Amino acid sequence: MKRELIGGMLACVLMTGCDDDFHFFDPDDPDAPRDLTGWYYNLGVDLDWRMGPDWNGEVFRVYGKRANDVEHFLVAEVTSCVDGGCVYRDINVRSNTAYEYYVAALDLDTGAETPSDHAVEVWVPEPIPPPVPESVAAIALDGAVYLHWDDSPALEDDFFAYRVYLVTEEGDFLLGETDSPGFLDLLAENGTTSTYLVTALDDQGHESRDSEVVASTPRVDYNGEVIYVYQDLPAMSGFRFQETETATAIGSGDGADRHLRLEYDKGGPKLVPGPLARIHPEFRATSALKCGPAADADCESWERAPLSGYASAPVPLLPGHSYMLRITGEDGATRFGALRPAIVGADQRGHRLAVFDWAFQHQPDNPSLDIVGD
Asked: How far is CA 307 from CA 259, 313, 336, in A?
């Protein structure tokens, strides 16, 4: 709400009987603050205004009161402004209360004050925090950690974002915000355990309590490859099987040497084979890409590729399923590869992605994919 303060002066000029205490502005008085605005955010009231064009180094006084009080009182003096603009945050406010503010320029030499031409009224609501994110999980990747959680807080009408924190002995450090129930931490280091928590944030800056804490340790291996959807990040949507885990497997989705790329249509994510690759139309539900000596007793994998039946048609990408590919090498020989997506989601920027494990048998015509390189 704006309340005119200068209009009364103009009316007085047009009248024959002004009150003896009415203040007429002297041309030498400070130039008035301009464009005053105010709003509530996260337990406080923020005020913003611009300096007048004739500002000459004067300080600004912020005056405020509860809307139903009679007199304004001095709240603060502001001396630091940047690029012609000034801000002040009032945290001495109570919930379920309306406050009214105006700002005045003060000449310290003469004591003259010139108020803004209007006041602003701001309602301070009851601060109700959003729900706590639940089912937080951390997946170790190669040089990264992927976090995901239940998206229930996003169902609230005032939901704004999630915040992801790195938990350390020195305190919790904000890694970033995302409106998706997933976050890819690319700052994580192989061999170092990182601990995280997640909170929810509403559109008025209220933050939920901390989620449960989760920890993960990235490691170097062929597990946890991250590929993006071609329509979102084409430069990271292509994949090529490599003979070693140290070689770069992710590249352009337009690369002529790609074995596949990840695309997305109204049916969801799809694996699209490249020029020299074919995908078997059968894909199986598995609990791991391969089941080694340390695997659980109920581990299920698909580790031997079919010798025939491959096609160039795209197939839907489903988490927890293994896929077989037949590759024609540069030498003309046939080789087989397998991959298993563990996660289909999005990063903090909203870019859709998949995280998968892969194996490649570089010995020609060998369908065994239980160990990379055998």
From this structure: 18, 17, 9
**236: helix, strand or coil:** helix
Please give the Cα distance from 43 to 241 (Å, whole number): 53
What 3-state DSSP class applies to 152? helix
CA nearest neighbour of 166 among 120, 214, 221, 128: 214
Question: Which fold is adopted by the domain 2-124?
Answer: Immunoglobulin-like (2.60.40)
pLDDT in tens, 48-60: 999 988 888 889 9
What is the C-alpha separation between 307 and 324, in angstroms, rounded? Answer: 10
58 φ/ψ angles, rounded to the nearest 5 degrees: -65, 155
Domain ranges of the chain: 2-124, 137-216, 225-361
Of residues 25 and 201, more confidence is placed in 201
| pLDDT single digits (tens) 326-336 | 999 888 999 99
Q: What is the structure's pLDDT at 225? A: 92
The residues pairing with 257 across neighbouring beta strands, listed in sequence order, are none
At residue 144, does pLDDT exceed 80? yes
